[in-house]
Amino acid sequence: MSSEAVLTVRLVRSFEHRNFKPVVFSGVNLDQTVQEFIQFVKNEVSTRAGLPPPFKNFGYDTMKIIHQAHGAKTNELVMSLEDDDKLILQDGLTLRAAGIANETELAFFRKEDYERGDSDLTWRIHMDGWMDGRLRGWHVPSDLSGSIFI
Fold first, then answer.
1. H, E, C per residue of 51-74
2. How many angstroms separate the CA atoms of 60 and 110, rounded?
3. Which residues of 22-58 are buried (b: 16+ CB within 10 A; e: fewer)?
4. Where are the beta strands (DSSP E) in the chain?
5. Any long-range contacts for 71-77 (C-beta under 8 Å, 24+ apart)?
6. b/e per residue 85-121 (b: at least 16 CB within 10 A)
7. DSSP of 77-92
8. What is the C-alpha separation between 31 and 8, in angstroms, rounded?
9. Any residues with CB less than 8 A from the CB of 108 and at least 6 apart, and which?
10. Record's superkingdom (predicted)?
11. Which among 47, 107, 126, 140 is most buried, taking Cβ atoms within 10 Å?
């Protein structure tokens, strides 16, 4: 089993606005710790050409597995909201022990934003009713005015 991998890291700047940029890292050592990899990505992102400054200077602190090679992808727009206990990378583990393999896709985000927005990341538009087999309308909660996820 090779100790190096190609990993795609999705830099998530905003869950609400689905603002993210994927960055590919080649030759990643899977035997390094999660903390070492997070520090490596922070250093690389801050100096990488082609990334807008808001992505370079953001306070990323948490990684979560989005997709494994040859596995099914979710329909989530930014990342899955399920299985946090299994998919969020834990400090102290190596990348390999955390379940990372070649061609894994990860999300890198600020945990505070994820936890605060967790309830808003799910669908919150409710059907108003059906008429003659057709959708008659939608009820949008007033607290979501102007920030509907579609």
1. CCHHHHCCCCCEEEEEECCCCCCC
2. 5
3. ebebeebebebbbeebbeebeeebeeeeebeeebeeb
4. 4-14, 19-29, 62-67, 105-109, 126-131, 134-139
5. 77/18, 77/149
6. eebbbeeeebbeebebbeebbbbbbbeebbeebeeeb
7. SS---S-HHHHBPPTT
8. 17
9. 9, 10, 11, 12, 38, 41, 60, 62, 63
10. Eukaryota
11. 107
CATH number of 4-117: 3.10.20.90
Write out the two tokens for 29: 């050592």
* Those residues with Cβ within 8 angstroms of residue 82's Cβ, 6 or more apart along the chain or in another chain: none
Please give the chain's pLDDT, 150 residues, in tens. 578 999 999 999 887 778 889 999 999 999 999 999 999 999 999 999 989 998 998 999 999 998 887 665 555 555 666 677 888 999 999 999 999 999 999 999 998 888 876 545 444 433 444 445 555 555 445 555 454 444
Residue whose structure tokens are 């309308």 = 137
Q: For the chain, what's the residue count?
A: 150
**Coil, strand, or helix at residue 45?**
helix
